[in-house]
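2024-03-11 09:14:02 INFO queue: dequeued item Putative Zn-dependent protease, len=478
2024-03-11 09:14:02 INFO validating residues
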Amino acid sequence: MAETAPLYTAPAPQPAAPAPVPVSNRLHRPLSLMISAAILASSAVTASAQSRSVPVVRDAEIEALITDYTTPILNAAGLGKKRIGTILVNSPSFNAFVDGRRIFINTGTLLQSETPNEIIGVIAHETGHLAGGHQDRLREQLKQAKTMAVIGTLLGLGAGIAGAATRNSAIAGAGGGIAAGGGEIAMRSLLSYQRTEEAAADRSAINYLNKTGQSAKGMLTTFERFASALSISGTQVDAYRISHPLPRDRIANLTTLAHQSPYFEKKDPEALQLRHDMARAKIAAYSGGLGSLQRMFRNNPRGVGARYGDAIYTFLNGNPRNAIPKIDALIKEQPKNPYFREIKGEMLLKANNPAGAAAEFKQAAALDPRKSSLIRMSYGRALMLTGNKANMEAAIRELKAGMVRDPEFSEGYGYLAQAYGQSGQMGLSDLATADQHYYAGRINEAKIFATRAQTRLKSGSPDWLRAQDIINTKTKKK
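2024-03-11 09:14:37 INFO prediction written
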């Protein structure tokens, strides 16, 4: 990023069609919160940026919350039927960006947003980029900027050659200045365009918030935070060399519009605020530690959010048997909360009680209104880990059901491969392993297992053909 303070990013120039988000490694043992390596191809940036690794977080509870934040905004923008996805990025910084048909949101954005309204404002802004088609126009601006830079360089080289030929050092020096000036002009032109699009996305966000009956106060709170951070740091920013308007400029541009809304003083529903607090508590427990949790809930240390975070922190960093009574107390208060059951299942797995974990995951899946693929796969994984062959058929069924809803989630294929292996279906185990490597971006390894799977599968069967598709995959040259 060009900014010296964390601001919303301009829309990243990406292909219109979303690339798969492969999963290759996890931050922690539980399925409930994990990290993967997502490779995003970029066709409009330099070669060094054409393949970037983004650490992606998967969590059923947080994904459900973000979906509830995003859906009304997308509908207001006319994008409700466009299948826009949202992806959580494991980063402590306050940031969000888009790439065609996906919105990426840093976990740090959730941590720093004290109210749902603040994060909804971020989502509304990014939706403005998508609805405005800013990425397509940004690609055109990049092409123009590149052309301007090339022309400037050529003019500079021509002047330098002429100066050298005539032994005129002044002309030669001017050639270098022209070449540098061409790049500077191109950069400033591009950044000016990006600032214009950022301002347009801000205004669109206000419109979407009004259409959905929500306040824009959260957006102003966010920009005030950025402005304060710049002021405290004492950083001097060249307003012409950044891709976003300065926070104070954004506040000045939006304040009147925000206050004109009849919803400006509207507060978030208490139930939504509680869900937001619990999502923040979970992220803090996994990444920020006990001190972060205590600071977050210093004004309400015995609230549900604080106790939820404490239970998860105890599970991750202590004896899981000490964490189970803490989550049981929360389950007693909210017996229909599927995510309390889900995290208890993870605790029981860590306590080497897969049968008890399976029972909790089963209840979580039954209570989950979203029918999360992650919870279904957790249930199947727990059944598989019991080691009881009588459970293998059900384990495979649950894992496959989860994969149907989340077909690019590579970790699920790994568990499915184990379940097939324990049930003696080695051809399907090899195929699932091939899919795991394939969706993790390890194509060569995927081909090895697909070839081995074909030797154990019926020729021409759907599974055999799937293996052939993997074998026929062309790897892109770097």
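2024-03-11 09:14:37 INFO annotate: Confidence is low (pLDDT under 50) at residues 1-52, 147-164, 171-182, 230-243.
2024-03-11 09:14:38 INFO item closed
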